[in-house]
Amino acid sequence: MPLSKLQFKPGINTEVTPYTNEGGWLDCDKVRFRFGFPEKLGGWVKYTSQTFAGVCRSLHAWVASDNSKYMGLGTHLKFYIEEGGSYNDITPIRLTTTNTATFSAVNGSTTITVTDAGNGVILGDSVTFSGASGLGGNITADILNQEYVVASVVDPNNYTIEASVSANASDTGNGGGSVIAEYQINIGINTVVPGTGWGAGTYSRGTWGSAATTVAGGGSLRLWGQDNFGDDLLFNIRDGAIYYWDKSLSLSSRGVALTSLSSSAPSVARQIMVSDRDRHVLAFGCNPFGSSTQDKLLIRFSDQESLTDWEPTATNTAGDLLVGVGSEIIAAVETRREIIVITDESVHSVQFIGPPFTFGINQVSTGITIVGPNAAVAVNDLIFWMGRNRFYVYDGQVNVLPCTVRDTVFDDFDLTQGEKTYAAINSEFGEVTWFYSSNGASVNDKYVTYNFVEKVWYYGTISRTAWIDRGIKDYPVGAAPNGYLYNHENGLDDDGSPMTAYIESSPIEIQDGESFALIRRLIPDISFLNSASGASKEATFTLKAEDFPGTGYTRSYASTVTDTDTQDFVRLRGRAVGLRVESTNLNMTWRLGSPRIDIRQDGRR
Predict the structure, then answer these.
(1) Is the C or the N end of the chain the one with fewer CB within 10 Å?
(2) Whole-prediction pTM value?
(3) What pLDDT is recorded for position 601?
C-alpha cells in the first residue's frame, strides 16, 4: 500500500468522542498552533533575580515623560513599583503612632512583644519603627529601627515580632526614645475559603474582641486595580480605598489615600481607570458623592484632567452613572472606542459623549456570567472573557465563543477560586490565555488558550497569577506564585530547566471493514529549526494502536526522532492508530508537519 499521510485538524477538541474526532488532536501541554500545525511554546526566564513578597494579582506598565519605564505590582501583602529590575515598596501607611510603642524581650529569645494601644494589626502585617533607643543588650537601636512582619497578635494592644538576634539578660528596657511606628495597610487574603457566619472571614479569630490573626472563609481575595495618570499612578484595593503615587516624590515615597488630597474623591471603589480618550478618572462600584456607603453599581468620574475634582458642578465635567442591571460591577475593560462594564449578569457600554452629560451608558446584553474581575481582556475593539461555564466575546455585541475544550476546562475548574482567574494577551501569536485554578489546587496551575487568529483552542499547565503583554516591555511578563516575574517567549526552556511539551491525536482508522492493518514504517516530519546550537534535537514519536472504539490503546511503539532521521521501521497492528509527539530536552524547540506511515492489510484477527 502507498504511504498514508497523517493530517490533523488544528486545535484541541475534547467535546466529542475520540473516534468522532478522527483526524483531530485530543490532548496537549505547552504546545501552540501556528499556520494550522502544532509547535512547542516559547520558553521563559526570570525578569529579575529579585523577588517580591506575596502573590501578585495585578501588573501595569507605563512610560513616564522622561522615558523612565515603570511597572506597578500588587500582591496580597504589598504594593510595589518596579523600575530597572528593582522592586520599590510603596505600600500605603494606614496608621502612624508616636511615643506610644514600647518593647519587651525575654532572655534567650528572638521574640519581642510590642505594646501599642489600638494598633489594629493582623497576622502578617508590616510595621516600621524609628526613633527607638534599644533595650540595653543585644537588642540595639539598629535591631529595632527597621521594618518587621507581625508574627502573632496577643490582644488589641500587643503583638510580637521576631528579631534577628536573641535577647540577653541586659535587654530589660522598653525601647526608650521617641518611637514612631508606621503601620502599613492590612494584608489581604490569598486563598478564599468558602464560609459565612460565626468564625468566617476575620470574625472571631483571636481572644474576645481582638483583631484577627488568621483569615478564614467568607473574605474577599486581595485584588488591585491600577492605571497611570500621566507620570503618576492610581491604584486601589478592590472594595477598598484608592491610592495615589506621585513620581515627582521619588520611588522612596509611598502611596497616599486619594481622599487625603480631595474630600470629594471616592473613599471606596471596586476598580479605578483613567480614560485614554478624554482623560477622566473613573471609579467603578464606589460610594456616591456626599455618602460613605458603597454602591457596587455606581460609576463616578472626575473632572477632565483632574485627580481631585469629583464634585459635579455646572462648570466641570465630573459626574456619575448607575448601571441598571445586575447586583455588582465585576469588571470594566477599555477598548479604543468605549469602556465595557460587566456586571454579574449584564454588559453595558460606556462612551464619552461630551457636555453636558460627559459619558453615556447603554445596555448591550443580559444573562451572562464572568468568573472574576481579571477574567476579561481587550484586544483592539474585541473583549474576551471567561464565564462560569462558557466563554464570551464582545465585538459590538455579546456572543458565546464556541469552545472545543469547554468540558475539559470547566469540569476541572475550582469556582471557589474563580477570582484568581487571569486573562492574558500574547499579541505576537494572536492568543488569549486564561490562567486558572483547577480543582484542589488553590493556585493558578492550568491555562486554556484561544487563538483568535487560527480560531482554535489548546491548554496545558503553567502557574501564572498576573500578566502583561509585550509593548512597553520587550517580552510578555508573567507573575508566578514563587515571587518571581518571568519574561515569556524568551529562550526555549522553563527558566533553564527542561520543558516537557507534548501533543496527542485522536485515533485514526487505518483499515476499513473487518480487517486489521500492520504499520511497517514511520516517516517523521518535524522541524527543529531555531533550536540552540549543540542542543539534542530530538522528539519522541509514539504510535498507539487500538482494535475497537472505547477499548483504549493496547499496543504502542515509541521512536526517538532526531533532525537527521528519515524513517523508522515499525511493527504495530490494529484498526486505528494515534500519534503522540513529546520533547523533554534543553535548548530545543520543534514544529510538527505531516508524518506518514506505511501500512498493509493484515487479516481479520
Answers:
(1) C
(2) 0.94
(3) 75
Q: How far apart are CA 323 and CA 365, in angstroms?
A: 12
Residue 564 lies in a domain: yes
Q: Please report whether residue 400 resides in a domain.
A: no
Determine the average pLDDT of the residues in 468-483: 97
The torsion angle over the Cα atoms of residues 112, 155, 98 and 149, rounded to 10 degrees, is 50
Residue that has been written with the C-alpha cell 520543558 in this structure: 499
**Residue 376 host element (H or E):** strand 376-379
Q: Are 223 and 374 in contact (CB under 8 A)?
A: yes
CATH for 151:
2.40.30.20
111-115 β-sheet, strand order: 102-105, 111-115, 158-162, 152-155
Cα separation, 95 vs 82, whole angstroms: 25
pLDDT at 509 over 90: no
Q: CA-CA distance, 511 to 574, in Å (whole number)?
A: 8
DSSP-based three-state secondary structure for 565: coil
Region of 199 (left: φ > 0; alpha: ψ -120 to 50; beta: rest) is: left
* pLDDT attached to residue 603: 65
Average pLDDT for residues 159-188, to the nearest whole number?
95
pLDDT of 199 above 50:
no
With contact defined as beta carbons under 8 Å apart, do 146 and 163 qualify?
no
Q: Is the pLDDT of residue 94 over 50?
A: yes
CB atoms within 10 A of CB 414: 19
Any residues with CB less than 8 A from the CB of 258 and at least 6 apart, and which?
A: 234, 241, 242, 243, 244, 265, 266, 307, 308
| Calpha distance 165→296 (Å, rounded) | 48
Q: pLDDT tens for residues 566-588?
A: 899 988 988 888 999 999 999 99
Judge whether 590 lies within some domain: yes
Q: What is the pLDDT of residues 50-75, one digit of tens each?
A: 999 999 999 999 999 999 999 999 99
The edge-to-edge listing of strands for the beta sheet with 31-34 is 31-34, 37-40, 591-592, 526-527
CATH number for 11: 2.60.120
Nearest to 260 by CA among 381, 96, 128: 96
Task: Specify the amino acid at residue 552.
Answer: G
- Model confidence over 10-44: pLDDT tens digits? 999 999 998 889 999 999 999 999 999 999 999 99
DSSP 209: T
Nearest to 560 by CA among 552, 551, 568, 571: 568
- Please state the domain count of the chain: 2
